[in-house]
Design a protein that fits this description.
- By secondary structure, this protein is mainly alpha-helical.
- It has a two-stranded antiparallel ribbon.
- α3 crosses α4.
- The protein is globular.
Length: 147
């Protein structure tokens, strides 16, 4: 498998997921960037700052700031200053945001199921093991670049 094929897969699957999320995006008047912020917060307890979203999702700081601002205006998110560092704001989904997150997570789960369509349980397990190795290698390589 080449890097080109991995990037091609990411693009194709991203396009498919965007298509599946389009009805929610239209209904709520949100962009995929805003949906990604909601999903990040819903799927990653303990990672609740704009910096976390920027670092782990690869969305630029300005785009995360715009998305967070819009989600706060729509009452899907709240911002709370960190008691030890007032410059740091913790983000939390409101009740409305949690309802949106549940809808988004259902679509996300369906996208994952569609991706694994036709695979046996053993094949899915093997794929997970291999993907864990690929992810570990990616993390190691990223750390090497950061040093």
């Amino acid at each position: 498998m080449t890097a080109t094929r991995l990037m091609q897969f990411a693009k194709q699957f991203g396009k498919y997921c965007d298509h599946r999320f389009a009805p929610i995006a239209r209904r709520y008047g949100l962009s995929m960037r805003e949906i990604n912020v909601v999903l990040f917060l819903a799927n990653n307890p303990g990672y609740d700052t704009a910096r976390d979203i920027t670092e782990y999702r690869g969305i630029s700081k300005s785009q995360v700031s715009q998305a967070v601002e819009f989600l706060v205006e729509l009452s899907y998110l709240t911002r709370t200053p960190d008691p030890d560092d007032r410059r740091l704001l913790h983000l939390a989904l409101t009740e409305e945001g949690l309802a949106l997150a549940r809808e988004c997570k259902a679509v996300q789960a369906r996208c994952g199921q569609d991706l694994l369509d036709g695979m046996t349980e053993d094949q899915v397990r093997q794929l997970q093991e291999l993907w864990d190795m690929v992810m570990a290698n990616g993390e190691r390589l990223s750390r090497e670049v950061d040093q």
